[in-house]
Structure formats: structure tokens, C-alpha cells
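Friendly challenge for the regulars: who can give me the C-alpha cells for this chain first? No prize, just bragging rights.
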Amino acid sequence: MNKTIPYSDEKIINFINVLGELTDPHDERGKRHSLPFVIASVILAMLVGRSTVSSIFRYISNKIKWLRDITGIHDAMPISRAYLPRLVNAARLGRIKHSC
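First reply, four minutes later:
Bragging rights claimed.
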């Protein structure tokens, strides 16, 4: 498993800026996680070979400082292992694993 993201920080930042333009369909009340942050984190985890919910969760937890820095979302918190698949499915990212 390759543990290094094969893209420069500049390209990752550009990608995250595009994600920032997404509309989050979730109710603002009680929202704890930035959808662009979660999507970027999941995709970056997948780029280094993480494919299960548990391994993606561990990647986000272990890389939280770097993910905050690279996304510019400095108050982002790691998403819980239980909520991660729900948010990914709600964002219709569930298809990513099947199309890769």
C-alpha cells in the first residue's frame, strides 16, 4: 500500500476548493462536520490505498492535523466511525468504491 499522496499540496488545495463549492444537503442545525472536509479526507485516504470504513476512519484520525492544514478547515474534527458511512452515503459517494 502506497502511503504517500501522489499529488502536490497545490493540486490537493485546488481540489478542495472545488469541493467547497458543493451544496451540503444536511440541515444546518446540529451539523458537526464540513462536507468538503469529509469528502476530501475520504478521497485522500482512498488515494493511499484505504478502502474499508475502518481504515478510512483511522487515516482521518491519524492525519487530522495535516488534513486541517491542507483543507484550511482548522476546526474540523474527525468524524466518528459509525457516522462516516452514513455521511458518505448521504453525499452519494458510496459509488466511489465500486467505480475505482
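Helices lie at 9-19, 35-47, 53-62, 64-71, 84-90, 96-99. The first helix runs from residue 9 to 19. Your move, everyone else.
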